[in-house]
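Students often ask why inverse folding is considered easier than folding. One informal answer: many sequences map to the same fold, so there is more than one right answer. In these notes we will look at a single instance of the problem. The structure comes first.
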């Protein structure tokens, strides 16, 4: 059991560490997105620097690796272990894949904010709640054009949606939802400062070669 948990967490971290934004930008555009825009290696900065044609596949992969980390536990469970204890292993894996994205081993521990990867985790663990959260994100983004603000408010709404809309009763899964609501604002603390000072950049879906978007 201990070996299984260590291996599951390690695989999840290594999976989360795959820096899709960095590798995709360098391979197809000859650009390290960390040198432009916000200096972040997340999908949002790819949208800013390289445009939606690059941003969409990067975001899709970030979501996929979060989903895959959880699915690997579903596909290769501990023999004979009941579903309730397996939930705790999935939570450990979720945290590991998120940390891998934020602090990627393959990219000098300079990663993204983890929103896309957590969305992938949510697809596997909270499918109904995620649909509602995505709706919250889209509504706020349509009004403000700030990805950071949309992500923060969607994350803050997440535990309430998990409890009151999807009706989740598992305390471990509720706890993970609360943790998401805490961690996402923390990873966006610089964005929060820029928002408060009116310096945060809005997203536009166009590319200006090598230039960040405002």
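Output (designed amino acids):
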């Amino acid at each position: 059991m201990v070996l299984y948990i260590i291996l599951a967490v390690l695989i999840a971290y290594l999976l989360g560490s795959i820096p899709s934004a960095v590798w995709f930008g360098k391979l197809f555009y000859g650009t390290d997105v960390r040198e432009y825009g916000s200096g972040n290696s997340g999908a949002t900065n790819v949208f800013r620097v390289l445009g939606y044609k690059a941003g969409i596949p990067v975001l899709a992969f970030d979501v996929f690796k979060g989903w895959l980390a959880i699915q690997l536990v579903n596909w290769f469970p501990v023999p004979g272990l009941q579903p309730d204890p397996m939930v705790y292993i999935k939570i450990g894996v979720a945290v590991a894949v998120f940390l891998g994205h934020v602090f990627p081993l393959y990219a000098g521990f300079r990663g993204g904010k983890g929103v896309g990867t957590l969305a992938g985790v949510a697809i596997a663990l909270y499918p109904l709640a995620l649909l509602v959260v995505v709706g919250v994100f889209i509504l706020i983004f349509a009004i403000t054009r700030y990805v950071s603000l949309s992500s923060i408010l969607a994350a803050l709404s997440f535990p309430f949606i998990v409890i009151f809309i999807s009706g989740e009763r598992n305390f471990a899964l509720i706890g993970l939802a609360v943790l998401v609501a805490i961690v996402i604002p923390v990873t966006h603390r610089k964005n929060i400062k820029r928002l408060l000072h009116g310096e945060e950049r809005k997203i536009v879906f166009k590319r200006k070669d090598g230039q960040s978007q405002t």
